[in-house]
Prior knowledge:
Arp2/3 complex 21 kDa subunit ARPC3
Amino acid sequence: xxxxxxxxxxxxxxxxxxxxxxxxxxxxxxxxxxxxxxxxxxxxxxxxxxxxxxxxxxxxxxxxxxxxxxxxxxxxxxxxxxxxxxxxxxxxxxxxxxxxxxxxxxxxxxxxxxxxxxxxxxxxxxxxxxxxxxxxxxxxxxxxxxxxxxxxxxxxxxxxxxxxxx
Length: 166
């Protein structure tokens, strides 16, 4: 049941990301809600869960984009892997850890998409623009990641408490 609920949340995040999130852009960047969720999941549930949900979220994003299926999934896998390298050294992350890993994950995600786009023959974007938007997105995601981590922790506690009562 928990996986079905998780899938529903991931579908909702992907849909909100491609429909409403662009309207909340700052400096040309908007929040990557699926990436933020993957960072929070990797911190709270571990690397295996983070990688699994990165695949799911990435395929969902790929299905909403025109083009090949796989680039967003691979990019989110690099984000989850980067987060797991950091998370393996800390038992309980604080807001700063979540923010820094979201920023680093955004950089890894964007670089992966940029490289894959080159291999797929996508039009080459202005590198200066790519850097500016990536840095703005990294800052945006870094601000939101601690909130997502806190929300996920609260949900896990609530579910655990509900299960103990039942």
